[in-house]
Automatic annotation (TrEMBL):
One Pfam match: Sushi
Source organism of the structure: Photinus pyralis
Name of the protein in question: Sushi domain-containing protein
S-S pairs: 47-59, 54-72
Record InterPro entries: LDL_receptor-like_sf (IPR036055), LDLR_class-A_CS (IPR023415), LDrepeatLR_classA_rpt (IPR002172), Sushi_SCR_CCP_dom (IPR000436)
Length: 234
């Protein structure tokens, strides 16, 4: 009697497994049993406290998690949310490429750049702004001047950003204009940006009464704070 109970129990298990996986023949029943046993092994396997449990049921050292190299068969040790927050030690002498600024993007020389990656030493970081509405800030002293250079793991000088640009200014036969930014005198006034000061001076035999009261104008968020003055024959 007990033997019959055991047989009935086995049959019930087999039928249950077969129905669960949709198998109806003997070969299907065998496959269902194998599948169930494999699933049971996956669920029952436990890794050590210093190990990471892969979805494939493998165990790897926790030191290999988020190390930039896939050690689990399906790479789930590198797909964790925490992996995006891990700060990896950069290669010696390289510089971290910063996030693109608003209204512009950084390039490595003439090529593209990917923020978060590392640029080799002595690479130049070039900023391209959405012109003509935006220009590099702070402005360069001249063409190619003050470009950030990767030296010993740091950009020198600090990479510029993009700022609203004011209308360019040029000297005329009657009025000389000089632009400066902070304590730096710019080569020209072709790319005035926020906080650029334009200083005006009359040429010989020309004058402008209001010039003595207001000899310069200031670029503020893309607009000059006063109308551009013009000198007239004296």
């Amino acid at each position: 009697m007990n033997g019959n109970i055991g047989v009935y129990f086995i049959l019930i298990c087999v039928i249950t497994i077969s129905e669960e996986f949709g198998y109806r023949n003997s070969s299907g029943t065998q496959e269902a049993i194998i599948h169930t046993l494999a699933r049971y092994r996956r669920q029952s396997t436990q890794c050590k406290s210093d190990q990471f449990h892969c979805d494939s049921n493998d165990c790897i050292s926790k030191e290999k998690v988020c190390d930039g190299k896939a050690d689990c068969p399906n790479s789930d040790d590198e797909k964790l949310k925490e992996c995006a927050e891990v700060t990896k030690e950069p290669p010696p002498g390289t510089c971290l490429i910063p996030n693109h600024p608003n209204n512009g993007e950084y390039r490595l020389g003439l090529g593209n750049s990917t923020p978060g990656e590392y640029a080799p030493m002595y690479k130049v970081l070039v900023l391209q702004c959405e012109e003509p509405q935006y220009k590099p800030y702070p402005p360069a002293l001249g063409v190619g001047a003050d470009l950030p250079l990767c030296i010993d793991g740091k950009w020198s000088p600090t990479p510029p950003t993009c700022a609203p640009a004011c209308k360019p200014l040029q000297s005329t036969t009657t009025t000389k204009v000089t632009c400066k930014h902070g304590d730096k005198i710019l080569d020209n006034c072709d790319n005035p940006v926020h906080n650029t000061v334009a200083v005006f001076e009359c040429e010989p035999f020309h004058e402008m009464p209001e010039l003595s009261l207001n000899p310069d104008i200031l670029c503020l968020n893309g607009s000059w704070d006063y109308p551009v003055p013009q000198c007239l024959p004296g």
